[in-house]
Amino acid sequence: MPPMIVGHRGVAGTHPENTQASIEQAAKLGLKWIEVDIQPTLDDQLVVCHDHTLERCSDGTGRVDEHTLAELKQFDFGSWKSSEFEDEKILTLAELLALVKELDLSVNLEVKVDTRHQPAHVVELLHDELIRCSMDTDRILISSFSHRVVEEVKKHMPQYRVGMITEQLAQEDKTTIECVDAFSCHLNYANLTQADIEYLKQTGREIWCYTVNQSADFEYINHVDAIFTDYPTRFIAQ
């Protein structure tokens, strides 16, 4: 059975990633799920952005967490992709959740942390935002590469499903997956093995793989539950 198609950062192949334009395009294409990245600002607001630095996807400089939300809202997050997306603004998590609800989308929130962040604090910010959200919990999946984030989410928000992200499935990942009773494991498709599939299926986990942009590249494409892609039109019937 073909996997579910998840729009990676919206439709990142053709639109500026993690922006309103990209998410709206996913809805226009008929997708049911998108994936976006969230991280904190200097003033503890969660915003939708993948990189911890601003240079690649905006006209700003420095780290996201070195700027207040008001400062980040001054930057252009669209022109780097194309002039047609000029002045696209960074989304807050609250704005993102309102948008996906309006567009009848479900969303995978990937929590981005590095050594500058306290995972427990970031999860607390996420908790505070989600308790104000009226979306059904089964339309939100929370994931992270950070074992600590996944553990904190399960501890403080057990009503939400969690996904463990990893480049290659290791024993440490399996331990966390089992400890938190993860809904899913999100793997780099290039590193997925038959043994991984068997383990995850036997333990009742869904398998979501990133980032698949050519079906011919992924021999296990019909053995996983979902794929993240920058180019959804390559996988869906028009």
TrEMBL record:
GO terms for molecular function: phosphoric diester hydrolase activity. Residues 3-238 form the GP-PDE domain. GO terms for biological process: lipid metabolic process. Pfam families: GDPD. Gene3D superfamilies: Phosphatidylinositol (PI) phosphodiesterase (3.20.20.190). This is Glycerophosphodiester phosphodiesterase. It comes from Vibrio fortis.
